[in-house]
Specification:
- The chain contains nine helices and 13 strands.
- By secondary structure, it is α/β, with parallel strands linked by helices.
- The strands form three sheets. A six-stranded mixed β-sheet has the order 10-9-8-11-13-12, with helices on both faces. The protein has a five-stranded mixed β-barrel with strand order 1-2-3-5-4. It has a two-stranded antiparallel sheet with strand order 6-7.
- It is globular.
- The protein binds guanosine-5'-diphosphate and zinc ion.
- The site of zinc ion has 8 residues, from helix 8.
Length: 305
């Protein structure tokens, strides 16, 4: 019988079977995963084969992962969770209440690109936006759509725009992120009433760092698909990027880079830089370019702790 691991405590795994039934399973023998260093070979999101023996259910095979992300549970502990087979990442942002900076958005998007996972931006709280906010919303949407990211405008208070979110989530495994206060839990609650509480519990334990043993968990959606909640950007903040690699994770910069005069152009100061030229012409957004430069200048320092 096939199922998907929805929760892992390290010794027990909750596996949701195709029938919808959830079985508590143990693992059998030793599994070795190619290229992954972890004490725990089975991750949330893994598709597994389960056999039910007289003394309990056992996972005896793990299917190859199509991708995975690593989520560090708190800043203090070294504990990390792997979430396997992620279809997409949703970043909930607000233009105002609170302000989400484009640098924050771009860092998130770059990290998600590094994992090769598609990203969606959900702009929430549109019911609160004044004229100025709406102008900014329009400008940001244009910038990100042009790069290739889907953008939704919603209000989890009024329900406006929520159908788009539901359609996007259906039958997919989606990782949710967002700064605290942007309305992530309200949005999840709109999408699936009743889920909010459970998700909030997980987020809170991550945010406070009080509980050192936190478990990754995926929540099934009644209309098909799963949500994985991740606090802030931390989920994606761990990825190590070499300076020269950062431009690969800005799709529009990466595309232009092939036209630069020097093959190792950093797109900061070089003559004949096609990226700089595109920024001047307005073909690459200044704010995106600014985020690139700020990540580049920070280099690996941020990740070297
Ligand atoms: P989280 O920290 O991202 O999970 O944010 P919450 O869901 O807890 O929401 C933070 C605050 O914003 C709460 O007071 C919500 O009631 C409010 N909120 C969330 N979504 C909306 C929205 O679309 N419109 C308005 N006006 N308020 C919202
Ligand atoms: Zn260049």
């Amino acid at each position: 019988m096939k199922g998907i691991v929805v929760k892992s405590t390290g010794s027990w795994y909750s596996v949701r079977m195709e029938s919808g039934e959830v079985l508590d399973c143990r693992i059998k023998g030793k599994f070795r995963m190619k290229g992954i260093k972890t004490t725990n070979p089975v991750a949330v999101g893994d598709v597994v084969e389960v056999v039910v023996n007289p003394d309990g259910a056992v996972i005896n095979r793990i299917e190859d992962r199509k991708n995975y992300i690593i989520r560090k549970s708190t800043n203090l502990s070294k504990e990390a969770h792997i979430i396997a087979n992620v279809d997409q990442a949703v970043l909930v942002v607000t233009v105002n209440h609170p302000v989400t900076s484009t640098v924050f958005i771009d860092r998130f998007l770059a990290s998600v690109e590094a994992y090769r996972i598609p990203a969606i931006l959900v702009f929430n709280k549109i019911d609160l936006y004044d004229e100025e906010d709406l102008l900014l919303l329009g400008a940001l949407t244009q910038i990100y759509m042009q790069v290739g990211y889907e953008c939704f405008h919603v209000s989890s208070l009024t329900g406006e725009g929520m159908e788009d979110v539901v359609t996007a989530l259906k039958d997919k495994v989606t990782v949710f992120s967002g700064l605290s206060g942007v309305g992530k839990s309200s949005l999840i609650n709109r999408v699936e009433p009743g889920l909010k509480l459970k998700v909030a519990e997980i987020s809170d334990s991550h945010d406070t760092g009080k509980h050192t043993t936190t478990f990754a968990e995926m929540f099934p959606l009644s209309f098909g698909g799963y949500i994985v909640d991740t606090p802030g950007i931390r989920a994606f903040g761990l990825i190590h990027m070499e300076k020269t690699e950062i431009s690969h994770y800005f799709p529009e910069i990466f595309k232009r880079a092939s036209e630069c005069r020097f093959y190792n152009c950093t797109h900061i100061h070089e003559p004949g830089c096609a990226v700089l030229e595109a920024v001047e012409k307005g073909e690459i957004s200044e704010s995106r370019y600014f985020s690139y430069v700020s990540m580049f200048e920070e280099g690996d320092e941020k990740y070297r702790k």
